[in-house]
Amino acid sequence: MEDDTSGDPADAPAVEIRDLVKRYGRTTAVDGLSLTCARREVTAILGPNGAGKTSTLEICEGFRRPDGGTVRVLGLEPHDRALRPRVGIMLQAGGVPPAARAGEWLRTVARFHSAPLDPGALLRLLGLTEHARTPYRRLSGGQQQRLSLAAAVIGRPELVFLDEPTAGLDPQARHACWDVITALRDAGVSVVLTTHQMDEAEKLSDRVVVIDHGRVVADGTPQSLTGAERQLRFRARPGLDLDELLAALPPGSAAKESPSGHYIIEGLVGPQLLATVTAWCATEGVAAEDLRIERRTLEDVFLELTGRELR
């Protein structure tokens, strides 16, 4: 890693990564990755399993050393001790002593900061008040996740790293975590998170970075990535002749079956196209179900970029 003694300019990005490389034996987990996370924004890093997300975060957090490239966090090298009071970290798992009681652990973490948030208020916000005296090992997975989130933000950090913050949470707990993340951004905190939940990234983030095989494959706001185009979707028997359907549609239309039995029509989606598709289905004896018009989602973009096969 290159040495940098340029200091900590106030206008430095929250995170700046240039040509990052991380290898594990013969496997290259991160392969020349470059990205910038702005201050006072939520940046979501998305990617399939094994894409290099967690390795990238662990390097930014100072837990791993890169094999190439440079990383700066709030203008500093990730291992700089000056970052400790300024950065909050929520690990994907662990980080809390198994015997520590939830409330006691949060109060202990608070004592390491000069102006912490109120531990009791955080416990209430995240639905943990009645579990304040429960040892960490006896908390459910979702409760452990929420306690880790509380510990990451209690010190009023300038930057928070959240690795899969809502994994395994029920809908109520998930929305409570969303409220915390939104409040952090509103308070001027920079948030960098990884998630497999596309709706979460679309709802929370100012910017989305999609990585695959250790490289950036897309970067932009959720709106710029999904675009303004609308789609017509419907379900029917698998294997419809899409060439025949396209021949009946206006020029410039596109049709695909993905997954089996689920059809997507793109183009100038309006009343004429809708009428054409329903008429074609009627002529072919096709029962079109769940027919609807909607905008392309972040999940559509993600699958187009990274493929649908399981890894």
TrEMBL record:
One Pfam family, short name: ABC_tran
CDD domains attached to this UniProt entry: ABC_DR_subfamily_A
Keywords: Antibiotic resistance, ATP-binding, Cell membrane, Membrane, Nucleotide-binding, Translocase, Transport
Domain of life assignment: Bacteria
Gene3D superfamilies: P-loop containing nucleotide triphosphate hydrolases
GO biological process, one term: response to antibiotic
Main location: membrane
GO CC annotation: plasma membrane
InterPro entries reported for this sequence: AAA+_ATPase, ABC_transporter-like_ATP-bd, ABC_transporter-like_CS, ABC_transporter_ATP-binding, P-loop_NTPase
Subcellular location: Cell membrane
Membrane topology type: Peripheral membrane protein
Residue stretches making up the ABC transporter domain: 15-238
MF terms in GO: ATP binding; ATP hydrolysis activity
Designated name of the protein: ABC transporter ATP-binding protein
Annotated organism of origin: Microbispora oryzae
